[in-house]
Fold:
Amino acid sequence: MSLLKLKIISLSKIVFEGEVLQVSAPTETGEIGVLADHVPLVSVLKEGITTVKDRNGSKRVFKTAKGLIEVRPKSEVVVLTDAARELEN
Structure:
């Protein structure tokens, strides 16, 4: 299965950087799910839970503040947010 290159960046640090299978994030227009080769887009991120399925298939959960999610060509995703932290599973 193809992988995404994901970065979750807060105002103070890079919270996560790595290759993942899937990203799901809350946007102003609803939940978005991103897989490899997704069409490029930029969307407004609202405060909520962003979930990541890592390359091993394990789920990682992040609390994210408002911001932006950008899906770039070549399966790159950047989440820019005011604040983010990983939650315990």
